[in-house]
Amino acid sequence: MERFIHGGFFANRKIQIMTCVGIVSALCAYLVGDSDIYATAQAIIAVCGVYWLHKSKTSKGK
User: Has residue 35 been placed in a domain?
Assistant: First the structure.
């Protein structure tokens, strides 16, 4: 139960999961027709930028 409360396998993978959800969400919005290719590309670049900033912040402390 303690493993479940603290996240278990996904405890240190929150930013990766949110990045994947953001990319899938942007692609699905494009495929459904809610956004065009430029808005989709902009959303994917923004999500990847957040991931890159988080990764660079965590690797500097090591």
Answer: yes
